[in-house]
Specification:
Blueprint lengths: L1 H36 L1 H18 L2 H25 L2 H27 L1 H19 L4 H14 L14 H6 L7 E2 L3 E2 L13 H11 L1 H31 L1
Antiparallel strand pairs: 1-2
Helix pairs in contact: 1-2, 1-3, 1-9, 3-4, 4-9
GO cellular component, one term: lysosomal membrane
Subunit structure: Interacts with SLC19A2. Interacts with NTRK1/TRKA.
InterPro entries: Tetraspanin/Peripherin (IPR018499), Tetraspanin_animals (IPR000301), Tetraspanin_CS (IPR018503), Tetraspanin_EC2_sf (IPR008952)
Length: about 240
């Protein structure tokens, strides 16, 4: 009786937890579709910050992908526990395990290959800036927004724009790279505000918020491990029923 009571309690918790995931995924999916269909009203409500973000990342597709994944996970976990379906519980376990492994792999790659990533990005992005910045409106706008919001200049520094179409036409560097509208800055300002390459600046922001990022990542990993453990517990207990 005690074992059955424990099984029922864990089953109910599994259902409620995954119902919350399912509803959250549905909300994100709905917002993603809303942004795709009527992006202007989204910008009107959430203002200039959302506009800047949307210029750098295609928010609608990102929300649709994340929302869809959460919907699938929530459905498999909630319905699998409610129906006591071993097949759905195993599918839930497998999907969460794949996501967990992918997150660990991404973290390892980010830690180990940061230098390699910078080298590869420099090899790809710098020639692109020199070739298209100032003529390609989309690329120019995205970089202007990024540099303004992140307070950085180029991928490595202002020299990334040397001999670009913009530099040849205006005989100067992009406005975010200028101090007092006159001189380009090759290294950060004494107060740490201005201006360095976007790659270093983004890395610095990540390091500054490493505790928060690490805490969030650890929390997500703990939830994933717990959900896998619970789904496997229910899966194994169904054999005993």
């Amino acid at each position: 009786s005690a074992k059955m009571g424990c099984f029922t309690f864990i089953k109910v918790m599994m259902i409620l937890f995954n119902l919350a995931i399912f509803l959250g995924g549905g909300t994100l999916l709905g917002v993603g579709i809303w942004v795709t269909v009527d992006g202007q009203s989204f910008l009107d409500i959430f203002g200039t910050i959302s506009s800047s973000i949307m210029q750098v990342v295609n928010v609608s597709y990102f929300l649709i992908v994340i929302g869809s994944i959460l919907l699938v996970i929530g459905f498999l976990g909630c319905y699998g526990a409610q129906k006591e379906s071993k097949c759905l519980l195993m599918m839930f376990f497998s999907v969460v395990l794949i996501i967990f492994i992918a997150e660990v792999a991404a973290a390892v790659v980010a830690l180990v290959y940061t230098g390699l990533a910078e080298t590869l990005l420099t090899a790809v992005v710098t020639p692109l800036l020199k070739e298209k910045y100032g003529t390609d409106k989309s690329l120019t706008h995205i970089w202007n927004v990024t540099m303004t919001e992140v307070h950085c200049c180029g991928l490595n520094n202002y020299t990334d724009f040397t001999d670009s179409p913009w530099h040849k036409e205006h005989r100067t560097y992009p406005e975010p790279c200028l101090v007092g509208g006159l001189l380009p800055v090759a290294r950060p300002h004494l107060r740490g505000c201005l201006l360095q390459g976007c790659f270093d600046q983004i890395l610095e922001e990540i390091k500054t918020n490493a505790g928060v990022v690490g805490g969030v990542a650890a929390g997500i990993a703990a939830l994933e491990i717990a959900s896998m453990a619970v789904s496997m517990y229910l899966y194994c207990k169904l054999d005993e029923k």
